[in-house]
Design a protein that fits this description.
Elements lengths: L2 H6 L9 H33 L31 H33 L5 H14 L4 H13 L9 E2 L10 H20 L6 H23 L4 H12 L6 E3 L2 E4 L1 E4 L4 H28 L5 H19 L4 E4 L2 E3 L2 E3 L2 E3 L1 H28 L2 H9 L4 H31 L11 H13 L2 H30 L5
Antiparallel strand pairs: 1-2, 2-3, 3-8, 4-5, 6-7
Helix pairs in contact: 3-11, 3-14, 4-11, 5-11, 6-7, 6-10, 9-10, 11-13, 12-13, 13-15, 14-15
């Protein structure tokens, strides 16, 4: 703008500038909202004091005085506080949410792909699954799993024992070692078909060596054929170690010694090494076109390092079998029927929606991509895995995130079947005992908000990685 035009421009007071007016209006609105918030908080606090309702968070460190039948951390009614009860409920909520999300994703993807199957029966069965489960209220499904499926199971004294579990007898360690060695050898020899050159000979030799070692452990490691047959009679007689009854699934409890950290450290190191080798192999393939045996190396690392650490630590893992004493079992680890019912209900219900998301995502991919995969000689499964599904993920992930959020929030229905989640333990029992309704509900709402934001953030990162990069 020239100086002449600037001189000809009329002077406008600062309060008439649109930008300045916007700041003024926003400031006034903020003051009004802050005033109403202050008045609401003050009024609520006065009324709560008048009725003897606590207005602070002093209840957090008071003794809880109630038991919880599922705790992932140390908790006792006589010594634990309401704050610890909150963490117990939160961890139980996260446990069922994570497990249900994993199962819902697996089942949802399987059903969604099955709906597009060329097999008429498979496609129709998948359609019946989707149309049935997504149109039945979730609460009714939870009650079905809990009351119609799990409660009719026999009582603990008549529990269903899983027979002939030979690897649960006292001579557990050699049997597991031989099974791990044999499985590792079989996987390595199977993956050897995908590589070329001298590596094939090395892989086959290493796999065969592992299977021979497995045979040696089986014959000479204390769990030979005669020993297993002799212990099998005991297992068949009702001491298998796994029992199913109307109060849950009981299975052996793992006991670890102080040297067990070596196994965990070895497993983490193996996973990190496998990831690093995969990254290096991709760079080599991009630069030279040479393909590296990623699966073979990962198998050797993830199986071999923890196994070596197991021997080096002096076999730090052992199992304690549950025993029936009186009217219930003592020892072992129990999966509550409330947890199982909630997990089955959430996973199968959410899977029906995920299946439709997956089906829509696959149909969004151009048909030419499938034809190109067929022209390259890929099978239908290979075409889905390598061509179609990776492109469909950019359509699948956003609505899939919503389903994960819905599943996590729907877990609050656990209160209807007695599962001790955050809502039942904290927003139920703690609220009733302390009377701090405002504080408890505010904390519960904040927790679910944080869980939702973290889930959205993680899925958004994954979505950006899977999105197509245009040139």
């Amino acid at each position: 703008m020239s100086q002449v035009q600037m001189r000809d421009r009329p002077h406008v007071p600062w309060w008439n500038e649109p930008k300045n007016r916007g700041y003024v209006y926003q400031g006034l609105l903020f003051i009004v909202l802050a005033f109403f918030a202050y008045e609401a908080v003050t009024n609520a606090s006065n009324n709560m004091r008048a009725r003897g309702i606590p207005t602070d968070f002093s209840f957090w460190n008071k003794t809880a005085g109630f038991d919880v039948n599922l705790t992932l951390i140390e908790y006792s009614a006589a010594a634990s506080t309401y704050g610890q009860a909150f963490w117990v409920g939160l961890l139980n909520t996260l446990l069922v949410a994570v497990v249900s999300i994993v199962f819902a994703t697996i089942v949802g993807f399987a059903i969604g792909i099955a709906r597009l199957s060329n097999n008429w029966i498979v496609a129709k069965l998948a359609t019946v699954y989707v149309e049935t489960l997504r149109n039945i209220p979730l609460l009714l499904q939870l009650l079905f799993w809990y009351n119609a499926v799990l409660k009719p199971l026999p009582n603990p004294r008549d529990a269903l024992a899983v027979p002939k579990i030979t690897f649960l007898v006292p001579e557990f360690a050699p049997t597991v070692i031989c099974l791990a060695l044999g499985l590792g050898g079989w996987l390595i020899t199977r993956r050897a078909r995908l590589i070329e050159g001298v590596a094939v000979i090395i892989a086959n030799a290493f796999g065969s060596l592992l299977m021979l070692a497995a045979l040696g452990v089986w014959l000479f490691g204390g769990s030979g054929v005669a020993s297993v047959l002799g212990q099998g009679v005991v297992a068949f007689g009702g001491k298998a170690g796994i029992y199913l009854h109307n109060r849950g699934l009981i299975f052996p409890e793992v006991h670890l010694t102080d040297s067990a950290w070596m196994m965990g450290a070895a497993l983490l190191a193996a996973i990190a090494g496998a990831i690093a080798f995969r990254v290096w192999a991709r760079r080599v393939q991009r630069s030279t076109g040479e393909q590296q045996p990623v699966g073979l190396v990962a198998t050797i690392l993830i199986i071999g390092l923890p196994l070596l650490a197991y021997f080096a630590a002096g076999a730090p893992a052992s199992f304690a079998l549950p025993e029936l004493r009186g009217f219930n079992f003592v020892g072992g680890t129990r999966i509550l029927p409330e947890f199982a019912a909630l997990m089955f209900g959430l996973a199968l219900y959410t899977a029906s929606f995920i299946a439709e998301i997956v089906r829509g995502g696959i149909l969004s991919v151009s048909k030419g991509q499938t034809e190109a995969a067929n022209a390259l000689g890929l099978t239908r499964a290979q075409g889905l895995k390598l061509v179609v599904v990776p492109q469909a993920m950019r359509v699948i992930i956003p609505p899939l995130t919503n389903q994960y959020l819905n599943l996590t929030k729907n877990s609050s229905l656990a209160v209807f079947i007695g599962y001790p989640d955050l809502v039942q333990v904290f927003a139920g029992t703690v609220l009733n005992q302390t009377g701090a309704a405002v504080q408890v509900i505010a904390i519960t709402m904040a927790v679910y908000l944080v869980i939702s934001l973290v889930t959205s953030f993680v899925m958004d990162i994954y979505n950006k990685r899977m999105s197509l990069v245009e040139r």
